[in-house]
Amino acid sequence: MYGVLLAISSGHFINDTLQAVVPAMFPIVERSLGLSYTQIGWIAFALNMTSSLLQPVFGYYADIKSRPFLLPLGMLSSLLGLIGFALSNNFIFLLLSVLFIGFGSAIFHPEGSRVAYLAAGNKRGLAQSIYQVGGNTGQSLAPIITAFIFVPLGQKGALLFTLAAGIGIIVLVRVSQWYKRRLAGEDGFSKKRQNQKMKANNGIHKKIKMAMLLVVFLVFARSWYGAGISNYYQFYLIEDYGLTIREAQLYIFTFMFAGVLGTFFGGPLADRFGKRNIIFLSMLGSAPLTLLLPYLPLDVVIPVFFLIGFILSSSFSVTVVYAQELLPQKIGMVSGLTVGLAFGMGAVGSVLFGSLADLYSIRFVMILCSFLPLVGVLTWLLPKDKEIRDYHAV
């Protein structure tokens, strides 16, 4: 199944690379179109909130009846939005274009998570890490795209990514063909789906519901911190440290690339040491470093930034798998909630942080963000991995 996992991870990489074009463009359109921080926040909101609102919806209907060929359809929607974004010459058209990109992501992610789940076998942490590391790698390219494509080529440089979108459609068509065969009954999957539906009719334990709400809240906190860093820390580096746009991208790339590594290693570590334990260590382990970050001299920002990105992102794929095990009969909806709400709540955070930056300063926003990982202490209230299985047995 590694071939399937690598293929869906590649599709995830291309999908999220297309999304990364939007924040990568922020420093360019902020100057060329004269946008305020609040307007930049609304662009991030339009992109991420579309995905947030619709991912759980698509996931819910996928649990009822899967539609494998939604995967390439989602990529096509992102392609159309990318073309519009490259050619837009005002704020309103930028907003409309990113809606198509967000819509494409909402279609792709729930079905992509289901494919990873089906191909996982008994290594769900590793499988979800392979899948998620593709997306995180794509997102980490945003600062590289800014420095080497948009700074020299400007906004129309986004048209270069239409080729990647075309390749993504081809890859996802092949994955959809495998997915369709699996749904047709290969390896007894049809029987497995029937058993899951029977379990769904037995009701959900009260503690499982409470745990799911807490997982979603933890996703909120982590995504708000990520939104503050990925969308605004580059402006903090430019304003407070005097860096150029291109120089600032190295720091953002360090954070995002560290997140890729953390995402990959977090899954196998969770398979070994327990999912709840990794979620707990990820949030609280990064908190001391995030609190220090706004006050550090420039020389030590990169190593600290790397550690924050690695530690905080080590729970990214683990949170998805943990939530899937809380509600194994609703894989699509749960994936939409955890991954989709991560983007959506980041969107709300982007608007809030943009408004606060206009009212106060970027430095104020960075200090505010630094406290968010502290809510990870609430992870201790989650049931242990073994307790989840006991609740399902009741």
UniProtKB/TrEMBL annotation:
Recall the GO molecular function terms of this protein's record. transmembrane transporter activity
Domain of life, per UniProt, equals Bacteria
Instruction: Identify the Gene3D superfamilies for this entry.
Output: MFS general substrate transporter like domains (1.20.1250.20)
- The UniProt transmembrane annotation reads 40-62, 69-85, 91-109, 130-151, 157-175, 208-228, 248-266, 278-296, 302-322, 334-354, 360-382
**Cellular component, GO, one term:** plasma membrane
Start and end of every Major facilitator superfamily (MFS) profile domain?
A: 4-387
Compartment(s) where it occurs, according to its Swiss-Prot or TrEMBL record: Cell membrane
**Pfam families reported for this sequence:** MFS_1 (PF07690)
What membrane topology was assigned to this protein in its record? Multi-pass membrane protein
Q: Which InterPro entries does the annotation name? A: MFS, MFS_dom, MFS_trans_sf
PROSITE patterns annotated for this entry?
MFS
Write out the entry's keywords from A to Z: Membrane, Transmembrane, Transmembrane helix, Transport
Predominant subcellular localization, coarse grouping: membrane
Enumerate the PANTHER family for this protein. Answer: FOSMIDOMYCIN RESISTANCE PROTEIN (PTHR43129)
Supply the name of the protein.
MFS transporter
